[in-house]
Design a protein that fits this description.
It is built from 1 helix and 2 strands; from the N terminus they run ββα. It is of the alpha+beta class. The longest helix has 5 residues.
Amino acid sequence: MSSFYDYSVPNTKGEEVSMKEFEGKVVIVVNTATGCVEKLL
């Protein structure tokens, strides 16, 4: 099973950021998806 710290994501400049950089810190993950409203209508 993968840990949160095994993942990396692009920042606003397109550079990969490892979640390991945030180990030991409080992290809030906001999952946003475009097009959800259209699917509900």
